[in-house]
Amino acid sequence: MGLHIFLLLSLIPLLCFSNGDELMEEEVITARHIQPQGAPFLINPESPEVQEVARKAVEEFNAKSKSRKYFRLLNVTSAETQVTNLITYKIDAVIGKTKCLKTADAVIESCVMGKKRLMCKFEVTYNPRNDKHELIDSSCKK
């Protein structure tokens, strides 16, 4: 009797292995690029969000500039953002000098454009806790 039970128990692994010989279809998992959290990434330069940040950058640029005339945003050529505790935007833009003097109250969007154009790089942070934009860095060249 003990021998019969021993033989039956020794056959169980063989039965399990015979079922394991069947081919299984495995789903192929393909890797895709996933943006690491907190890493900078490109965004559409024409998006309303980028346009608004670029306008605010030009406003601050005008406030800090020693030029007697206002500059106006003409085109955003590229934009990158990084989300940490703040949202940082790095924007490449073309701005143009207007004929409106800073001494006069002017609606910059309606100012007549002059000929001077500058290629600018702006770095702007946005703090969502207090809803404030700050121009961290700007550099412009002809």
Low-confidence stretches: none
Overall spatial form: rod-shaped
Q: Can you list the strand order of the major beta sheet?
A: 1-2-3-4-5
Question: Percentage of helical residues?
Answer: 25-40%
Structure class: alpha+beta
Radius of gyration in whole Å, from Cα?
A: 32 Å
Helical stretch count?
A: 2
Distance between the terminal alpha carbons, to the nearest Å?
99 Å
Main pleated sheet: 5 strands, antiparallel
Binned strand content? 35-45%
H and E string: HEHEEEE
Got a strand count?
Answer: 5
In short, what is this structure?
With 142 residues, the protein is α+β, with helices and mostly antiparallel strands. It contains two helices and five strands; from the N terminus they run αβαββββ. The protein is rod-shaped, with a radius of gyration of 32 Å.
